[in-house]
């Protein structure tokens, strides 16, 4: 008789369910090793993950039941046996978890490697025509590679990715530096344009003042010209009268012009009148 069955039927039932799950996990990982297609491997690994989750829940139930029985009068050897059994279950489950992580990484590397080959073939086949046969060959090539080869290839791809990231960081930094220099140059040009605009405003204001001053000067010059023309007419008129008077001194039309004295022969003294 199973010693756990002698302690508790419920513990024995839980242990049986856990053992069934362990057998299913063992068979599932053996089947996973034989599968070559990465998508099928991913689906199989998901099913195994669900089984491991159920197994973890049952181990927790087993541990809770053991703790509830520790104060029920069991001897020290029984409690030690139950704790050893629980630790053995946890250890076995952890081994399947480690396998799950290993296969998850391998499947990921396989998918990435296949996608990388497919993308390379797409770039080449833009000139060579359809690449369905080449893509299938690449997938088969990735599926036929050993785990170690996939690991090595994955590490190489990760190194290439890290180098590409570093190059991208350098390019980004150089772009930031160029942007900073450009921003400083634009700021300097903006300040210069502001000064030019201020100077243009000053020039425009000066031109307005100069235009107004020129208009005033023009009005003054026009007034002065009118005065000068009037004076010239007066002077010409006076000269003309003088010339006429000299040429024809007996002309009665101009004898009474103010400023011109009468002829000496026509003057008479006051005492001669008397």
Automatic annotation (TrEMBL):
Gene3D superfamilies: 1.20.5.110. It comes from the Eukaryota. It is a single-pass type IV membrane protein. SUPFAM superfamilies: SNARE fusion complex. CDD domains: SNARE_SNAP25N_23N_29N_SEC9N (cd15861). Its main location: membrane. InterPro entries: NPSN/SNAP25-like_N_SNARE (IPR044766), T_SNARE_dom (IPR000727). Residues 155-217 form the T-SNARE coiled-coil homology domain. Keywords: Coiled coil, Membrane, Protein transport, Transmembrane, Transmembrane helix, Transport. This is t-SNARE coiled-coil homology domain-containing protein. It comes from Brassica rapa subsp. trilocularis. The gene is A05p012110.1_BraROA.
